[in-house]
Amino acid sequence: MRRQNGLGEDFRRLWAGYTVSAAGSAVGSGALPLIALLALHASTLRVSFLAGLSAVASAVIALPLGVRIEYRLKRPVMMTADAVRFLVLATVPVAAALGVLTYTQLCFVGVVQTAASVAFDAASGAHLKALVEPQSRIRANSAFETMSWVTSSAGPPLGGLLIGVLGTTATMAVDAVSFLGSAAGVHRIRRPEPAPPVRSDPPHLWRDVTSGWRHLLARRELRALFFNSLLFGGPVMMTSPLMAVLMLRNLGLAPWQYGLALGLPCLGGVLGSQVTPALTRRLGQRRVLLVSGVARAPWLLLLPLAPSGAFGVGVIVAVDFGLLFAAGVFNPSFSTYRMEATDDAFMSRVVTSWSVSSRAVQAAFMVGGGLVADVSGIRPALVLAGVLCLASAFLLPWGNPHRAAVPAARPEPVAVSLESDVAARD
Length: 426
Fold this sequence. Notes:
This protein is mainly alpha-helical. It has helices at residues 9-27, 31-39, 44-70, 74-98, 103-131, 137-166, 170-187, 205-217, 220-250, 255-263, 266-283, 285-295, 309-341, 347-376, 378-391, 418-421.
């Protein structure tokens, strides 16, 4: 098999399919709250509730799926999840064209789409671990991270332009079709998929549902990163609907300006993910995790200071750029560590438990942020989010690294140039 940067043609096919879906998702970034806000004129609380309901309700659907996915071939699960996301997202522009779109439908779409995303992530994490050799995982995860930020940079401005020209639901149609590209990429993978683990114990609902959490909580450093990610991700997602209201209502920005403010900072994530393999070779995976984990924590405290006008947009872009640069370094290192720290037979369950926990906590933060904003205003709610995000740095694994359950693997000493060697991944 001809190899691309040590990762192989099958990785390139997977990466190409992901690129299409991530590009579509980036164009449709924040589409549901925007549609609720601009097309249905929903209140700030209802916009926040939409995101919160999607996370909580999807957890009820996704949790029992984690164990079933563990003992199945992963590619059929991934393609089925893509097909479900295509179908459910496509109902939004259709309903809007017929004049029957409702807030209730947006809630239903959010729940099903989020549950399908959890199922896809659970299967894809285990699939990628089996597809890529251990010494190449940091480069594989950096490649995914890079193109994720590339599409996140270009997608929102394009989405804002589409909304301005074709209406608020146009981006949902693009997002829906993109999942067909993801399914096609997975289908084109040639290497036979390894047989899934064979179940040796009888099914037990409570034990099955909690097995992913029990596995990750038993590993000290993985447990610390789990709680760190919850306290970081919650406040960050809490600011998402608040910033939409702040920029579109309080600061009076046009949709294209809102999309630009979302997209430009993602270049920081691109830069961060590009330097991650080199930083890991020089500093080691643990030090990169700690330094970037601290560096991503304080930025939200600056968002409430954004004034109106062009200067305010510049402040928002600069703050998000700094945050996303640090996150672009942190995420590939963290994803690689989680792969190595998790037993193969528990990979799908750990990813499901992690994803469900993150979405549930983020939902609670978003709903709480909406309540705080209703009582005290948008900017005080953003201050609270910044303080909580800063506190996440204290939950990083600061203890003795020699007590870690699983040592981090060193990447190959090979220079990486994603742009010259492989197609962009999204």
